[in-house]
Design goal:
The protein has 310 residues and is an alpha/beta fold. It has ten helices and eleven strands. The protein has two domains: 4-102 and 283-301, Rossmann fold, CATH 3.40.50; 104-274, Rossmann fold. Strand 6, helix 6 (154-165) and strand 7 (169-173) form a beta-alpha-beta unit.
């Protein structure tokens, strides 16, 4: 029977889910720790026909894939594919699937929570009250302000819906502009938006696409939000914009290096709200995503692959 390997269930999600019962009739191995390096990852998946990938820190390089002659499928839990060499996988006949839109509501809700926390200075004011102070911060209201959404996939569209729901004026930019939205140029979005929220995928064309020149265009009172991928933004440029108060604040769930290094200057900035790449982790989204990742394997084995990205 073809072997399914889950090489990276740490912290544990698959082993604790109801979804794992879908594998009860399949030969499978589940590793409860992260592989220490590429050699350990290879040892875990060398004889696998299919891999269910849980953590984006597990990287499937061209060199690794060349050492896995039996591998025919990598089923990713999540939408991001930047940790898989898609071209190498395709060249070797390895199908890659993901779980599109399954976390869209969770990530969009988290995005809105960061918008509120950053705009209302919730964390900073909370700390002041705990110190015995009684601040009267003149924070902005979001109703009537402009929300600029970069990327209009499933998550971006949900953020647009939620933003409009609280009375924000929504403008948008995307690599692929489909749908009846208030499209603007990227430069115009940065100039006009009171809140800029990033929702494009990490790809060669999006790496480092947001940098100093874009922060220079923003209003002094504007907020920058990123729940997409850290490397889409030149982090040092964002740090400088926050440190110099060129922009009012930021809410970040993703970073150039994860976990966030102890010496990261972002840790010391009072005008930024930080969360640990956890926007899509709700009980509901996690269970649905794990089930879809397994369904993708079963559909592939049945000869009807779905959610193929390469």
């Amino acid at each position: 029977m073809p072997l399914i390997v889950i090489p990276d269930d740490a912290p544990p999600v698959m082993s604790l889910s109801a979804a794992v019962m879908q594998l009860r009739d399949c030969e499978h191995r589940l590793h409860a720790t992260l592989p220490a390096d590429s050699r350990e990852l290879l040892a875990r998946i060398a004889d696998a026909d299919a891999v269910i990938n849980i953590r984006a820190s597990t990287r499937f390089t061209a060199e690794l894939l060349a050492e896995c002659p039996r591998l025919r499928l990598i089923s990713i839990w999540g939408t991001g594919t930047d940790h898989v060499d898609l071209h190498a996988a395709k060249a070797r006949g390895i199908t890659v699937t993901n779980t599109p839109a399954v976390s869209a509501v969770a990530v969009a809700e988290h995005t809105m929570s960061l918008i509120f926390a950053a705009a209302k200075q919730t964390v900073e004011i909370d700390r002041a009250v705990r110190r015995g102070e009684w601040p009267r911060a003149m924070v902005p209201q979001l109703h009537g302000k402009t929300l600029g959404v970069i990327g209009t996939g499933a998550i971006g569209r949900e953020v647009m819906r939620l933003g409009a729901g609280i009375g924000m004026n929504v403008i948008a930019w995307s690599f692929n502009q489909r749908g009846d939205y208030s499209w603007v140029t990227l430069e115009d979005l940065f100039r006009r938006a009171d809140v800029v929220s990033v929702h494009v995928r990490q790809s060669p064309e999006s790496l480092g696409m947001i940098r100093a020149e874009h922060f220079a265009m923003m209003k002094p009172g504007a907020i920058f939000i990123n729940t997409a991928r850290g490397r889409i933004v030149v982090e040092k440029d964002l740090v400088e914009a926050l440190r110099s108060k060129r922009i009012a604040g930021a809410g970040l769930d993703v970073f150039e290096t994860e976990p966030l290094p102890r010496d990261s200057p972002l840790r010391l900035l009072p005008n930024v709200v930080l969360t640990p790449h956890a926007a899509g982790i709700t009980r509901e989204a996690t269970e649905a995503g794990l089930a879809m990742a397994i369904d993708n394997v079963l559909a592939f084995r049945a000869g009807a692959p779905v959610h193929v990205v390469n």
